[in-house]
Amino acid sequence: MKSHLTFLSLASFVISLFLFSITSSFSQDKNFVGIKTLKENGKVASQTITVENKSGIRSFEQDKSINNSAAGEKYVLGGTVLWSTQDALAIANKVAINTAGNSALTGWGLNNQRVSLYSDLTSVPLWNFSTGTYDPVVDISGDGSIIAATAGKDFYILDPTTGNINYQFTLPDSLYASKVSVSRDGSMAIALTSVFGTPNAVRVYAFDLSGFPSIKWTFDVPVIENKDWSGINFSASGSEVAITDRYHLYIFNSEDGTLIWDHFVENTQSPPAISGDGKVVCTADNSGFVQTWHFNSVSNEYDLLWQYHVPPGLYINWASSVGISADGSTIVAGSMITLSSGYDGSVMCFDTYGNGTPNWIYTGFGDLVNDISVSDDGKVAAAVSWGDYYQTLKKDLIVFDVTTGEPTFQVTTPGSFFTVDMNPEGSRVIAGGKAVHAREFGNGGRLYFCEIDLGGGNVNGNVDLTNTSDDSGVLVKALGTARSTITDINGDYTIENIPAGTYTISAG
């Protein structure tokens, strides 16, 4: 649909989109009280604290009657499983998806270890690359042209068309590879290595992939205590990379390997989350803290913005996973809650520059929330959980509309999900895991490729400002929705994913 506006300050008009859409209604819950001000070395931050529990241990399920429905129009309208597949022996340990959402990479482990590349059309892999007796870890660049994998003592760059080896680096000495990450533009990859048989984080390898692959820089971590790598993520710009081991967070300049900042973290098993410009970094740890830092250009360090502590249960509850939108606006974290009998999991959503009080919390996820993925604009979030042991809650993968906090799409399996990834737009999700519950012995794995309904209509138009040749920077909104965009220098704009309905388009 095409439109044209000529105006000085504000203009609006009405359009109708005749599209088929599906909506659903859910609610989230949990209330919080109290903000504690933290002061240290002249710096001030906020920590959310919960009301004192004077009635004994209480499960999150008992708080379901307390509703905290966020206001706002839904952006995520639902979803569909495009395809799914099972493996009788192997487990889908790690997944990654490209920007277009039409190529999904999976690292299968335990048995029949291999790297598999899938399209969005079929569950039959385009190719498989065997990694022998080692579980692979994988990642893919935004355009899908770079596929990296680590397995055993080797780092690989695989041909995206055939799965053949384009580059292989065998680690020296007693080093074995574990984690891997590729920058969105495909110019770099980072591999984390450690000494086989001991959980000691040892060396970071950075590879230059802009030409024929070569080692760009390395960083040796002093081994002070036993600790293993937790995870790694590039900023969307590729200029910074964040790495966690069990007790430290490291932020590097990815270009030259300069250590920008490192900080003690209390026992994390989660990869760090980093914003697209590298200015915001988040961690989740097993002491129950979600912590968020912002880069201070004066001190060249990261200052604590806030920290949130997951309310205590029967034991100390974990903050088990965390993700942040590339625009830096939204943080979503997962937890594992210890109950008097069994476990539960929750998903929490925060404004990055809020005071650490969740906008909403979704409870009753069944068990440890193992992985989180957030769209670039912070409007879509996907979370995966081990699910409850007896499969009564019927939830393993949930896609949330972040504005309202509503779970708009979910997948249930007889097993547990370990890994999830979402393309930047939030329109495609890949999730994988184990065929039986994570706390149960057994083989086999499952993989699901899903399409997320963000609305089916686009509005294209042009804004013509008077007395200027530069028509850029005008905010154009579909009123009554969360949809908006900014005009380019020619005044052109596209508002994407507008649900069926009649809307007033405003610009100003």
Number of strands: 42
Report the structural category.
mainly beta
Mean pLDDT rating: 85
Give the strand content.
over 45%
**Helix proportion range:** under 10%
Radius of gyration: 23 Å
- Give the uncertain stretches in residue-range form: 1-71
Quick recap:
This protein is mainly β and 508 residues long.
Topology:
Layout: E1 2-7, E2 11-17, E3 35-40, E4 43-48, E5 78-87, E6 91-97, E7 103-109, E8 114-119, E9 127-130, E10 137-140, E11 147-151, E12 154-158, E13 165-170, E14 175-182, E15 188-195, E16 201-208, E17 214-220, E18 229-234, E19 240-245, E20 248-253, E21 259-264, E22 273-274, E23 280-284, E24 289-296, E25 301-309, E26 318-324, E27 330-338, E28 343-344, E29 347-351, E30 360-362, E31 369-374, E32 380-385, E33 397-401, E34 406-411, E35 416-422, E36 428-434, E37 445-453, E38 457-465, E39 475-478, E40 484-486, E41 492-498, E42 501-507
Parallel strand pairs: 1-38, 4-25
Antiparallel strand pairs: 2-42, 3-4, 5-37, 6-7, 7-8, 8-9, 10-11, 11-12, 12-13, 14-15, 15-16, 16-17, 18-19, 19-20, 20-21, 22-23, 23-24, 24-25, 26-27, 27-28, 27-29, 29-30, 31-32, 32-33, 33-34, 35-36, 36-37, 38-41, 39-40, 39-42
